[in-house]
Amino acid sequence: MVNAELDALLALQASDGVIREIEGRRAALSPRLALLDVTQKRTVEEVGRIESSLERELTRQRLLDARIADLRSTHDRAAGALAAAERISDAAAAASQVEVARRALAETESEAHGVSRRVADLRTALAAHREVLAQVSQDQGDARSELERQRALLDAELATARMHRQLSASTVSADLLGKYERIALRRRSDAVIELRDFSCGACDTAIPLQRRPFMMAGGRIELCEACGVLLYRKARE
Ligand SMILES: [Zn+2]
User: Fold this and answer.
1) Under 8 Å between Cβ of 75 and 107
2) Ligand 1 centroid vs 193 CA: distance in angstroms?
3) Dist. CA 98–CA 77, nearest whole Å
4) CA of 21 relative to ligand 1 center, distance in Å
5) Contacts of range 202-206, beta carbons closer than 8 Å, 24 or more positions apart
C-alpha cells in the first residue's frame, strides 16, 4: 500500500518535471514574440512619423502657393500702374510697389522651393519605409506562425502531462500530496529524493541511526531534517 503510494508520488513527480520543462520552453517563446511586436511597432511608428511630416509640408506648400499667387497679382497690378503712370510721383510710387512685391515674391518662391524639395525627400523616404514595413510584415507573418505552431504543440504536450499528473495524484493521499506540493514549490524542483546509503540524496545529511530500521523496510517516506525534502528508499524485492 505504502509502496503503491510512493510509486504514484514518484510518477507524479516525473510528470511535474516534464511539465516544468515544457513550461520553460513555452515561456522562452514569449520574448521572441515580443521582439517581433517591437520590431513591427517601430516600423509602423516610423511610417507614421514620415506621413505626418509629409502632411505638414504639404499644408505649408498649399499656403505658400496661395501667397505666391497673391503676390503675383499684387506685382502685376503695380507693374500695370507703373506702365500707366503719367506723373513722375505716381511712377515712383508704383515702381516702389513693384520692387516690394518682387522681393516678397522672390523670398516666398525660394521658401516654396525648399518645401518642394522636402516634400520630394519625404515621399521617397515614405515609399522606402512602406516597403520595409511590407517586408517586415511578411517575414514576421512566417516567424509568427512558426512560433504560434510551436506554442500549440507545447500546449498539447502540457495537456497530456497534466492529465498524467492528475491520474497519479488521484492515488496519493491529500496529506502527502500537500506536503509534496509545498516542498516542490519551494525547491522549484524534485521534492521526493531517494536515499543514498542512508544519507539524503539532496543535501547529503546522514539519517539518524534510530530512524534507519524504519527506512530499511522500504517504501517509507520521511522528511529530511536538514533540507526538508521527502526521502524514500525503494523496497528490495
Ligand atoms: Zn536533505
Assistant:
1) no
2) 9
3) 8
4) 24
5) 202/227, 202/229, 203/227, 203/229
Pairing of strands 230-232, 192-194: parallel
Residue 202 CA, ligand 1 centroid: distance in Å: 5
Q: Give the Å distance between the CA of 19 and the centre of ligand 1.
A: 24
- Of the pLDDT bands very low, low, confident and very high (cuts 50, 70, 90), residue 105 is very high
How far CA 234 is from CA of 5, 52, 170, 228, in Å, comes to 12, 73, 21, 19
Q: Which domains does the chain have, with CATH numbers?
A: 2-171 (1.10.287.1490), 173-237 (no CATH)
- 8 CA to middle of ligand 1, Å? 21
In angstroms, what is the span from residue 88 Cα to ligand 1's centroid? Answer: 115
Q: How far is the CA of 206 from the centre of ligand 1 (A)?
A: 8
Which string of b and e fits 87-126 if b means at least 16 CB within 10 Å?
eeeeeeebeebbeebeebbeebeeebeebeebbeebeebb
Please give the Cα distance from 202 to 231 (Å, whole number).
Answer: 9
Cβ 105 vs Cβ 71: under 8 Å:
yes
Residue 2 reports pLDDT greater than 70: no
Quote the ligand 1 centre to 66 CA distance (angstroms): 87
Report the DSSP pairing between strands 230-232 and 221-223: antiparallel
pLDDT at 237 over 70: no
Three-class SS state of 170: coil
CA distance 211 to 69: 105
Encode pLDDT of 4-61 as tens digits. 899 999 999 999 999 999 999 999 999 998 999 898 999 999 999 999 999 999 999 9
